[in-house]
Amino acid sequence: MRRALAAVLLLLTALSFAATGARAVSPDEMLANPALETRARTLSTELRCMVCQNQSIDDSNADLARDLRVLVRERLTAGDTDEQVLDFIVARYGEFVLLKPRLMLSTILLWGFPVAALVAGAIAIVVSIRRRRRSPLETPPLSDSEKKQLKKLLAASND
Questions:
Q1: What is the reported pLDDT for 32?
Q2: Any bridge partners for residue 56, and if so which?
Q3: Spatial contact of 95 and 102, defined as CB atoms under 8 Å apart
Q4: CA–CA separation, 85 vs 144, rounded Å?
Q5: What is the structure's pLDDT at 19?
Q6: pLDDT at 23 exceeding the cut of 80
Q7: Cα 107 to chain center, whole Å?
Q8: What dotted CATH number matches 20-102?
Q9: Considering the chain, what percentage of its residues have pLDDT values greater than 90?
Q10: Distance (Å, rounded) from C-alpha 59 to C-alpha 25?
Q11: Could you give the CA distance from residue 70 to residue 145 in angstroms, rounded to a whole number?
Q12: Closest CA to 72 of 95, 54, 49
């Protein structure tokens, strides 16, 4: 009984550590103002680490990610709004730095392709179902004249 309880506690402890994502923000980067730090954390989760590319700068230990985290905090302490900070970083690094790209003319294909693919798939399924309903599953029986022609052909091939 004690082993089972210990195993359950160990599992719950491991799950609690796994549930909280590891953050790469070091204490020396953090802002003293909790409201600004919260804004900085929110912005950091929206920006892609250009080295790791599948992590936000908040999760990455790369030097460039650290530099971007510091830059975000500097812009916030200078009085920039969240949108101004994002615009500044996008102007430097391009739209790729955003983990969630903005809806613009240049990204319309990126946003529209999944919807278009779903619509095309639904249309293909509907067309396929309608074709199956229209085509008979069995071939119609031969008419008398067709039967006579078949007998003549079979007799000719046997000779």
A1: 73
A2: 48
A3: yes
A4: 84
A5: 44
A6: no
A7: 15
A8: 1.10.8.640
A9: 22
A10: 8
A11: 90
A12: 49
Q: What is the pLDDT of residue 22?
A: 47
In the predicted structure, residue 111 carries a pLDDT above the cut 50: yes
By CB atoms closer than 10 A (0-12, 13-18, 19+), residue 16 is exposed
Task: Using the CB atoms, write b or e for 57-93: b if 16+ within 10 Å.
Answer: bbbbeeeebbebbebbbebbeeebeeeebbeebbeee
Is 98 in a helix, a strand, or coil? strand
> Which two three-digit tokens encode residue 95?
């739209």
In a 10 Å sphere around its CB, with 0-12 CB exposed, 13-18 middle and 19+ buried, how is residue 45 labelled? middle
Which pTM value belongs to this model?
0.54
What CA–CA distances, in Å, run from 86 to 5, 66, 100, 104, 131? Answer: 49, 16, 12, 15, 51
- What whole-number distance in Å separates Cα of residue 86 and Cα of residue 52? 19
pLDDT of residue 158 exceeding 70: yes
Strand partners, 47: 98
Q: Is the pLDDT of residue 20 over 60?
A: no
CA-based nearest residue to 58, from 70, 74, 41: 41
Residue 159 has pLDDT above 90, yes or no: no
